[in-house]
Design goal:
The complex is a heterodimer. Chain A is built from no helices and eleven strands. The chains are: A mainly beta, B mainly beta. Chains A and B meet through strand 4, strand 5, strand 9 and strand 10 of A and strand 4, strand 5 and strand 10 of B.
């Protein structure tokens, strides 16, 4: 099955700096890669996603890049703000009728943005 | 409209007790997923429903875990004879279509503590 590795496990930045979180996946058939933000005690919330037919997607201060050859994808947050502090999870969904869209998550990155 | 809701939000059980966790998906959503999130980890897939049919239960850790969605809307995850290793947050997610790359919307989770 799919295996997703995420790093770093913790990331500390100053307000205004950029933050980058990287994930690798094992199943070359995976075709959908969402990123979720989870604040303490709250539900995971989708912040951005990318499908395998594009290499980059941007939404205001957040961008995601995908390298299918290397089987890795990254989350980029620019101009970080204290409210960006949370746990971020990458995930992957393999293609194929029996995957049913079940997400395989990375281990999470605790991002702390210092004012 | 309303998002995914789960109840109870917190559950404390003595070892050996049975528990039932409820998920109310977004109205009209076809797909429903259950995930288990251990402390400091990413969610892990448990089971998947498409309407009332349970199409994948490969992630259920033992035969003490049972899930149902009899009318294709509300779902219940039941754990019999709870053990300490069952302590985790149980997340429910729903998505609108059968496609495997559709956005999954998560509920707030039920935090289960087994004493």
């Amino acid at each position: 099955g799919e295996n997703v590795e995420q790093h770093p496990s913790t990331l500390s930045v100053q307000e205004g700096d950029s933050a980058v979180i990287k994930c690798t996946y094992s199943d070359s058939a995976s075709n959908y890669f969402p990123w979720y933000k989870q604040e303490l005690g709250k539900r995971p919330q989708l912040i951005i996603d990318i499908r395998s037919n594009v290499g980059e997607k941007k939404d205001q201060r957040i961008a995601v890049t995908l390298n299918k050859t290397a089987k890795h994808f990254s989350l980029h947050i620019t101009e970080t703000q204290p409210e960006d502090s949370a746990v971020y999870f990458c995930a992957a969904i393999p293609a194929g009728g029996t995957s049913y869209g079940k997400l395989t998550f990375g281990q999470g990155t605790i991002l702390t943005v210092h004012p | 409209g309303a998002g995914v809701s789960q109840s109870p939000r917190y559950k404390v059980a003595k070892r050996g007790q049975d528990v039932a966790l409820r998920c109310d998906p977004i109205s009209g959503h076809v797909s429903l997923f259950w995930y288990q999130q251990a402390l400091g980890q990413g969610p892990e897939f448990l089971t998947y429903f498409q309407n009332e049919a349970q199409l994948d239960k490969s992630g259920l850790p033992s035969d003490r875990f049972f899930a149902e969605r009899p009318e294709g809307s509300v779902s219940t995850l039941k754990i019999q004879r709870t053990q300490q290793e069952d302590s985790a947050v149980y997340l429910c997610a729903s998505s609108g279509y059968r496609g495997n790359t559709d956005t999954q919307y998560f509920g707030p989770g039920t935090r289960l503590t087994v004493l």
